[in-house]
Specification:
- It contains twelve helices and eleven strands.
- By secondary structure, the protein is an alpha/beta fold.
- The protein has one domain: 2-enoyl-CoA Hydratase, Chain A, domain 1 (Alpha-Beta Complex), CATH 3.90.226.
- The strands form three sheets. A six-stranded mixed sheet has the order 1-2-4-6-8-11. The protein has a three-stranded parallel sheet with strand order 3-5-7. A two-stranded antiparallel ribbon has the order 9-10.
- α6 crosses α7 and α6 packs across α11.
- The longest helix has 25 residues.
- The termini are far apart.
Amino acid sequence: MSLQEFIAPPSFEEYRERFKDFFVLERVDGVIVARAHTLGGPVQLSVENHRALGQMLKVIGADPENEVLILTGTGDEFMMDADPEGFALEDADMPHWAYEYAYKDGRINVSSLVNDLEIPTIGIMNGSGFHSEIVLMCDITLCADDATLFDLHFDISSVPGDGIHSCFQELLGVKRAAYALLTGEAISARQALEWGMVNEVLPREDLLDRARTIAAHIMSRPRVTRRLTTQIVRRPWRKRITDDLDGGFGIQMFGHVAKQRSIHSRNHIADTVAYVRKGRKNNFDAD
């Protein structure tokens, strides 16, 4: 008998409670559903929930009872708003939080999704929103038929280097990604499907059932096959992350510190994404 014992894996009951203010977690027969929320409604971006995502992904990846992850948001929007006080910490100490939030937490979020989960992942874009890389970088992505994908960083005077650049460049290619990042292009669900950003477009009410159907198919294969297949399908993401993720975050962090002001205020974001709610292609051309 060994002189030491294994460290106990995370307990689902414990981390379900720990993350309840950020994610509703459910698990049935190894398929875990993580539904991001803010006070029970659509996610509103904040320093706090930005950090919680990476923490949750690492814990889910460390629990051997989890076999497939379904990651989604709440309600009819994915992320279209910011917590009114969600960046007070950044405003109070920009040099500190430029590293803690804009560099460290963000890199962990994207890296954990690709590297810390040895299980297949299904992302659900349940509605319009930014920071769509969180579901677009899942192995399979389903999208609500009325959703709009876009990136707002440039339009709120931030560098789009926090993972969305890696995601868009990998999925869209150099020219389409450059246009989307520099213009805030509103990409419809159907366009996202045609361009290969998502795998299926469905009515919102059908998304979770469809994800569970796909998960059941994945679960029908042997455990080692499921887990090793993730090593194959994620190789392009891992190469992309290794090549440019840290550098992109470093550039964005420098931009934050150089400006010495937060660009994540609720009003700033709301004013910028208004064109999406109005059905416009971008925020500078009414056509």
